[in-house]
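Anyone? Bumping this.
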Amino acid sequence: MRKFIALGLVYAIVQILIMTNLISGYFQATLVTIGINIILAVSLNLITGFTGQFSLGHAGFMSVGAYVCAIVTMRMPTIPGFILGVVLGAVAAAILGFLVGLPTLRLRGDYLAIATLGMSEIIRIIFLNLEITNGAAGLIGIPQFINWTWLFIFTVGIVLLLSNFVKSAHGRACISIREDEIAAESMGVDTIRYKVIAFIIGAACAGIAGAIYASYFYYLEPNLFGFLKSVDVLVIVVLGGLGSLSGSMLAAILLALISTYLQSFPEIRMVLYSLILIVIMIFRPQGLMGSREISLSVFSKLGNNKLWDRFKSQKGGH
Amino acid sequence: MDKLLQQIVNGITLGSIYALIALGYTMVYGIIRLINFAHCDIYMIGAYVGYFCMTFLKLGLVPSLLIAMLVCTILGVLIERIAYRPLRNAARISVLITAIGVSLFLEYGTMFFVKANVRTYPEVTGILAQRFKVGNIVISMQQIILVGITILLMALLQFIVKRTRLGKAMRAVSMDRDAAQLMGIDVNSTVSFTFALGSALAGAAGILVGIYYNTINPLMGVVPGLKAFIAAVFGGIGIIPGAMIGGYFIGAVEVMVSGYGGSMFRDAVVFGILILILIIKPSGLLGKNTREKV
């Protein structure tokens, strides 16, 4: 219950800030980027962090969702058209995830990473050459439907869905595959099936993230979804901690803020970004959160904490 | 028929480049099981070092080549020391992210210093600019030199790996790191040596590409790097002759596809080959199947 109150509060506060123009348009774009990155990161975390399947093709799934949604909403620029676009985008990405996952998930570790990387590059090249996606020039003027409300619904919905999935019996089966595939199989877990399920769910969520992207930034080109995009998502997941949904969310917010801050130094932005990445990996290879989760009870504990009380009383004393 | 032969000549030239880069990928993967994403940027640095030697220091091909190889060797060893060695026992995915970080750092660091614009190698003159006609096929002196240097370097590598003590140590570490250490092999210096060899080859590939294609830029390594890695996977990753075969095969395929009108899909075909080989024979052309023990 407390969870929903907290979520409602977050939604209401930001909504009020937007309505009173206290949040600038630029910061709103950052908010959308954070939402998209959270969706991408938690869905990749399901594949890589929880199921242990190393994928470098998330940008491919995202681009499919983005293009399908864009093409649908450009033909039907209405709210039902937008919802249809998001759903079709997710379904298309899921189907692709199934088609790609079934043969390639037999591969292990780095080989799977390279195969998924190849897959997403092939998708990008196909989009570069298709008529309906307008090739390298890209699609311009996609109707904008995403606002804070939609973004919040999708982001929170997907995070809740995935966190419930991970806690369910299916999710536990996925985690057992990560821990030891052979042991899981000998305990009767249908490993191929669960790997494909995780892949499909992850792909569908990435498709939704793509749809949100298309519908907010009203411009798409295939090169937005190159190898670097997949790397970006993977970096968020590993930085937050493999197997920690809250870690992914934290890292998505942190990286978006760092990247917004670095925007003012365009020449050294990527240099600093890569240095931060290397330093974090050397000193904290398990990521910020490891595989732990933050829950809201942490905050209430913090409230009851003696240190916190002392801090408060000290403040009062001055 | 002439066209086919001409494409084969071009394919061998391009394949030599891929083979040189692929060797570095395959040796590093063989020894520490890491896809060294920074490898393709060492190749780019090699091209830039060659450019500065030839344009500003007015050096000839051979001294420039040696300087580029030396700089890349030092760079490769430093990268391994600073970025990869602290993570020797960490999860493989963190090392991979570090490698991606190093790769981005080299790309954008270079971009910061030399700016993003394309640079042009000095025009080749004298004997280098000659072209030969065999029937209707044109072979340039650059192509001959490129392929010749590649084959020379590969022979040298084969000699080092097969005939020297260090090469023996490399093979032992790639077979079983712990057992090699127990036999008294210094694993760290062997890994450094592997990086040095791979990076020197990448540096050579960089300067040769500069001479052959003339233009270089800070992001020139990304796509050839991926293709060279595919070449390494195709031949069987960790296997040195496999990388050479894979490099020439990928080079030939790419040239054929673009030569016969599919240049838009050139990269897609290469990635398609990768996925096919991974599905049919994941251990690569020369790889042996290993069964996982419980």
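Late reply, but here is one note on the structure posted above: The radius of gyration of chain B is 19 Å.
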